[in-house]
Amino acid sequence: MRVALGIEYDGRAFHGWQAQQPGVRTVQVALEAALARVADHPLRVVCAGRTDTGVHALGQVVHFDTEARRSERNWLLGANVHLPDDASVTWVRQVSDDFNARFSAVSRRYRYFILNRTARGAVLAGRVTWTHRPLDAERMHAAGQALVGEHDFSSYRALGCQAKSPVRTLHSLKVERRGDFVILSVHANAFLHHMVRNIAGVLMAIGRGDRPEDWAAEVLALRDRTLGGVTAPPHGLYFEQVEYPPEFGIPAPRLSGFPA
């Protein structure tokens, strides 16, 4: 049968999502090892979107195939017994064989958290990006609206990005200030490698006043990553949610405990 699950993780001590050479700590390796203990056989998982080293997730979605018959409760509790403390399965559903965590997704949401104050953070160190220079959130929001819609995002993807096409549809982009935090929220059909971090880097330069407000649009039009801005650090980035057609019954993550 095919099983889907939601997982959240603190990315600080993981070398990203994807399994790499032996001995490298990744979320995929940890999750597959935990699920194998419950299933009593090796298995492979497919995720909705791979995350980089240091990037966090609140609503990552995964599917796997298994011959083991376990209740949804037993999958959840059993996996969490064997997962490290910085990763947790939050829900489990048996799904139809035509469900695919990656290819059935219709959109994805990320948030980027910036602690914007003179003093660096202690409690949130490694969980948010810190900058002491004042940011104009309204200016950042206005600049980011040029990126909404279907565009060639070549200037906003990593040089090593392996996606076949640089074209993505950004459904919405919002920048807002909440006290000492500036929060970037983005919603798109899919994202390119480093796309959100590169958007954050450009908007932060605009928010500091280092670049004019129309620079985000100028970078987009160049379609050349080498002429773009600095890639923002991974610490503030959260993979927030994946959305699917309602017939699959995939639950939305519960974000009541989300910082800020």
Textual characterization of the structure:
This protein is α+β, with helices and mostly antiparallel strands. The chain has 2 domains: 2-104, Alpha-Beta Plaits (2-Layer Sandwich), CATH 3.30.70; 107-239, Pseudouridine synthase I, catalytic domain, C-terminal subdomain (Alpha-Beta Plaits, 2-Layer Sandwich), CATH 3.30.70.660. It is 20% helix and 28% strand. It contains 5 helices and 10 strands, in the order βαββαβββαβββααβ. Strands 1, 2, 3, 4, 5, 6, 7, 8, 9 and 10 form a 10-stranded mixed beta sheet that branches. A hairpin with an 8-residue loop joins strand 2 (45-47) and strand 3 (56-65). The chain is globular, with a radius of gyration of 19 Å. It starts with a strand and ends in a 17-residue tail after the last strand.
Number of strands: 10
Q: Which CATH C-level class of the largest domain is it?
A: Alpha Beta
Tertiary shape: globular
Distinct helical segment count: 5
Largest sheet: 10 strands, mixed
* Unreliable residue stretches: none
CATH superfamily of the largest domain: Pseudouridine synthase I, catalytic domain, C-terminal subdomain
Helix content: 10-25%
Mean pLDDT: 95
Radius of gyration, Cα only, in angstroms? 19 Å
Strand proportion, as a percent range, falls in: 25-35%
CATH architecture of the largest domain: 2-Layer Sandwich
The domain count comes to 2
CATH fold title of the largest domain = Alpha-Beta Plaits
Class from secondary-structure proportions:
alpha+beta
Beginning-to-end CA distance, first to last residue? 39 Å
The run of helices and strands is: EHEEHEEEHEEEHHE
